[in-house]
Amino acid sequence: MAQPPFEIPQQLRELTERNVEQARTAYGQFMDAWAQAMGTWASAAPTGMMGTGFKTVQDRAVTFAKQNGEACFNLASDLATAKDLTDVLGIQSRHAQTLMQAYALQAQEMTRLVMEAAQSGMQPKK
Predict the structure, then answer these.
(1) CA distance 66 to 64
(2) pLDDT one-digit tens code per residue, 8-40
(3) Which of 3, 4, 9, 101 matches a 20 to 30 Å C-alpha distance to 83?
C-alpha cells in the first residue's frame, strides 16, 4: 500500500517565513554595523598603510559577504515555501548551482583586485 506523499503543513511554512524575515533583518543590521566598523578602522589607519587598492578589496569583500548572506536567506525563504520533499531537493539543487557560479566569479574578481592592489602598492612613491 502506497503512502501519501509527505507535505509540509502551511502553518509551519508561514512560521518559518516569519522567522527567516526576522533573521534577515538582524543579519542586515549586523552587516551594516560591520561595514561601518571596517570603514572606521580603515580611516583610522595611518596614511599610506591601506592604499586605495586594498580599500577596494575590502569593500568588495563586504559586498560579497552581503550578497552571499542574502543568497542564504533566499534559500531559507524558498525552502520555507516548499510543499514537499521533491520541492526541497529541487530548491537545494538550484541554489547549489547558483552559489557555486557566484563563488567562482567572486574568487576571480577578488584575485584580480588583490593582484592590482599588490602591484599598485609596489609602485615607487613620488
Answers:
(1) 5
(2) 788 888 888 888 889 889 988 988 888 888 778
(3) 101
Per-residue pLDDT tens over the stretch 61-93: 989 998 999 999 999 999 988 888 899 999 999
What's the pTM? 0.72
Residue with cell 531537493: 89
Q: Is 73 exposed, middle or buried (0-12, 13-18, 19+ CB in 10 A)?
A: middle
Residue 86 Cα distances to 10, 20, 91, 95, angstroms: 16, 21, 9, 14
CA angle 120, 103, 60 (to 5 degrees): 40
